[in-house]
Amino acid sequence: MGILTIALLIGMLVPVQTAANARMRISVGPVLVVTLISFMVSSVLLAVISAMMRMPLLPSAAQIAVTPWWGWTGGIIALCTITITICLFRALGQLQTTILPLLGQLLFSLVIDHFGLFGSVRIPFSAMRMLAMLLLIAGVLLVVVIPNLRKRKTSQTISRHILLWQLSAIIAGCLMASIGAIYGRLGLCLGSVVQASTMSFFIATIVIAAICIVNRKVGRMRMSIRKGNPWWMWLGGICGAIAVFGNSWLIPQIGAGAFFMALLLGQMLLSLLMEKYGWMGAVQKRISYVQIVGVVLMMVGVVVLKI
């Protein structure tokens, strides 16, 4: 239960990361630059932690030899998901940007568990897991889909546009689930979750920095330190580093499904509060009774999946 509580707390960092990166985008503009800043902050934080723990930054030749090639791709995939979620925040709002990727995460985490993908703990699919999945889908329908169907004043063009963003959010969630399992495998191969997290972010930071240099976007970084910017917009990289550390540490111990269940609760609860009260720049919206019922169904699904 203690490990699941830690996973829940890590889940609460995800809405904060999304909101912080979205606010950073307002200051600097291009999504690529926002992603670069976020990854640089994460890399520096992880490097400091590694130095304090006297951990080597670079893996040995023996560690590289036993690590599968896909073990080094977690940071690159994370680049894609963070870029997508920064755009999703503006297109869909805080709640949908949290709920829809979670649906993708949970569904694909069941696939990862069933087949033991990426060297994760193998947990076969069962009737109880099927019930949990149906409850989760029902909850998402009540929280996200039905409220949108009620807004029939919007045009079909806008509806199609929103549908594409929602589909992108689910796909991003599937990628997020694979990232967690990949980080976990890398942590086992290197024998250190700190080193695994640091290496993943270093690789991703180098890649996104190269892209920004080629596209001549690096100069936009100075806009992030101008007066008037809120301090909390720098939390994106810090939350990202902690989340990656949590992925590497917890998934090999409890499996992808259980990890993302607890993560769901944390993300969902804080997202509802952020959207209700308009915290950290989220568009303030009233939470309906239908959405509350949907949230309860999703929570029941999480409990069933743990049984």
Description:
The chain is an all-alpha fold and 307 residues long. It is 77% helix and 0% strand. It has eleven helices and no strands. Helix 4 packs antiparallel against helix 7 (156-190), helix 4 (74-92) crosses helix 8 (193-214) and helix 8 packs across helix 9.
Task: Outline the secondary-structure elements.
Blueprint (H helix, E strand, L loop, with lengths): L1 H27 L2 H22 L8 H6 L7 H19 L1 H22 L11 H23 L6 H35 L2 H22 L20 H20 L1 H22 L11 H18 L1
Helix pairs in contact: 1-2, 1-4, 1-9, 1-10, 2-4, 2-8, 2-9, 4-5, 4-7, 4-8, 5-6, 5-7, 5-10, 6-11, 7-8, 7-9, 8-9, 9-10, 10-11
What keyword list fits this structure?
mainly alpha, 77% helix, 307 residues, 0% strand
The number of distinct helices, counting runs of at least 4 residues, comes to 11
Distance between the termini: 13 Å
Shape: globular
Main sheet, how many strands, which sense, barrel? none
Structure in a nutshell:
This protein is mostly helical and 307 residues long.
